[in-house]
Specification:
Blueprint lengths: L16 E2 L9 E2 L7 E3 L4 E5 L2 H10 L11 E7 L2 E7 L9 E7 L6 H9 L5 H10 L6 H6 L4 H11 L1 H5 L1 E7 L5 E2 L8 H12 L3 H18 L3 H4 L1 E2 L4 E6 L5 E6 L5 E2 L21 H13 L6
Antiparallel strand pairs: 1-2, 3-4, 4-6, 5-6, 7-8, 7-11, 8-9, 10-13, 11-12
């Protein structure tokens, strides 16, 4: 979500994008769009207004999940543009290391599939990203158009990563020394994910223990949360933060694609997704994330 460090300047084309520093704290943004964020007053962050995200935060402030999301402070306007204002989650950390993990078995809403079928809009930029990874993937028609649909690109991308195998994927991380890691498009196996996490925590088992405590508490709360029970949570991330003191934190962020479920549909967040069932795989991914970190600890 948020960072600041000169090292980001070397990664302008990566998913880890620099936000201009306006406070002495580290303000970094992982796997997002730098233009969507501003630094607010009194330890807050401003994120470009999204009504769906606003409604999620308003509900979350009254839900059991409140300790696991940034505190929300309403809508403010800057330069004639509206922003959602929330706590900067890095406030209480000293030179933090930060990781973004995208949760769930898919990162697109079912309604996006319907829109793509009804009003297809082929994307040249996503075609270029696809062929840069594997030139053989596009169909004959896609090659002729030099473009692919956004949903086609997203579904294809997820087959490359641990989204399809574990229900979560690492979007990127930055270590406390400013070292950035963003190339996780093909990080798919549990061993590859474990290697990346080990790099992020620098093999510090104390940090791993800290994260495990947070994740287990989060899972327990998710399974009783009224908000979670009533929503399809897609495209949301877990933000991992730790620093040299051993302090750790994990928070749910990014709710622009989190949609309320129709009253006649219930999900368990673990079952495989089939179009129409609205399953998001969030708890399946969290189970695998917890198992992955647990296996990094000395076995007794």
């Amino acid at each position: 979500m948020y960072y600041e460090n000169s090292a980001w300047k070397k990664h302008k084309t990566s998913p880890l994008l620099l936000m201009a520093p306006k406070t002495p704290q580290q303000l970094m943004q992982v796997a997002g769009h730098a233009g969507d964020f501003r630094v607010g007053d009194y330890g807050t962050m401003l994120k470009k207004f999204c009504e769906r995200e606003q409604q999620c935060y308003l509900r979350l402030m009254k839900d059991a999940l409140r300790p696991f999301v940034p505190a929300y402070h309403g809508v403010v306007q800057q330069d004639e543009e509206d922003y959602n204002m929330m706590d900067n989650l890095l406030n209480n950390f000293s030179t933090p290391a930060v990781m973004d993990c995208k949760m769930g078995s898919r990162t697109y809403l079912e309604e996006e599939l319907l829109v793509a079928r009804e009003r297809p809009q082929p994307r040249h930029d996503m075609y270029e990203k696809m062929v840069a990874v594997d030139p053989e993937v596009p169909t004959v028609q896609e090659r002729a158009q030099q473009a692919v649909l956004k949903t086609r690109y997203m579904q294809w991308r997820e087959t490359l990563s641990s989204t399809s195998t574990l229900g979560f994927r690492i979007e990127g991380f930055q270590k406390s020394n400013g070292e950035c890691h963003t190339n996780f498009k093909r990080t798919k196996s549990r061993d590859q994910v474990t290697e990346a996490f080990n790099n992020f925590v620098e093999s510090n088992t104390h940090i791993v223990w800290g994260y495990l405590r947070w994740l287990k508490q989060l899972r327990q709360v998710l399974e009783t949360s009224d908000f979670f029970r009533a929503h399809e949570v897609v495209g949301s991330s877990l933000l991992f933060v730790h620093d040299w003191t051993g302090r750790t934190g994990v928070w749910m962020i990014d709710f622009a694609k989190t949609a309320a479920l129709p009253s006649h549909i219930t999900v368990d967040h673990r079952s495989p997704w089939v179009e129409g069932n609205r399953e998001d795989g969030y708890l399946w991914g969290l189970d695998n994330l917890i198992d992955t970190l647990a296996n990094m600890l000395p076995q007794t």
